């Protein structure tokens, strides 16, 4: 039985399509074909095509290998690096406990 991928919210779909477009642009700037990139990454040409189209079924491992093959692996370190929401939530809990006496 084929694995089912849960649907994404529209914003996430747009983000994946935009990422795919950026990866395609990066590949083309390096004068690489999809076949060249696929060979470097160890996947099929259709997989590269799906990734560049923003297909949600592409594994994170493949995305990381593509970024590495394109020399963009430094971008991986920036993913979720700044957690402004988490810090705000943490700080709000700290503020609440400061004024509480037992």
What key phrases describe this protein's structure?
102 residues, 434 Repressor (Amino-terminal Domain), mainly alpha
Question: β content, as a range?
Answer: under 5%
Mean pLDDT: 89
CATH superfamily grouping: lambda repressor-like DNA-binding domains
CATH topology: 434 Repressor (Amino-terminal Domain)
- CA-based gyration radius: 19 Å
CA-based shape: elongated
Specify the biggest β-sheet. Answer: none
Separate helix tally: 5
Q: Tell me what the CATH architecture is.
A: Orthogonal Bundle
Quick synopsis:
The protein is 60% helix and 0% strand. The protein is an all-alpha fold. The radius of gyration is 19 Å and the shape is elongated.
Write the layout of secondary structure elements.
Elements: H1 10-29, H2 34-41, H3 45-52, H4 60-69, H5 84-98
Helix pairs in contact: 2-3, 2-4
Q: Can you characterise this structure?
A:
This protein starts with 9 loop residues before the first helix and ends with a helix. The protein has 102 residues and is mainly alpha-helical. The mean pLDDT is 89. Helix 2 crosses helix 3 and helix 2 packs across helix 4. The chain is built from 5 helices and no strands. The radius of gyration is 19 Å and the shape is elongated.
């Amino acid at each position: 039985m084929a694995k089912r991928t849960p649907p994404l919210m529209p914003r996430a779909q747009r983000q994946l399509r935009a990422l795919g477009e950026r990866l395609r642009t990066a590949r083309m700037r390096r004068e690489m074909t999809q076949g060249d990139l696929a060979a470097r990454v160890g996947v099929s040409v259709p997989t590269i095509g799906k990734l560049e189209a923003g297909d949600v079924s592409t594994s994170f491992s493949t995305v990381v290998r593509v970024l590495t093959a394109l020399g963009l692996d430094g971008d991986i370190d920036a993913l979720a690096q700044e957690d402004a929401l988490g810090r705000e939530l943490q700080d709000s809990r700290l503020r609440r406990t400061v004024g509480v006496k037992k």
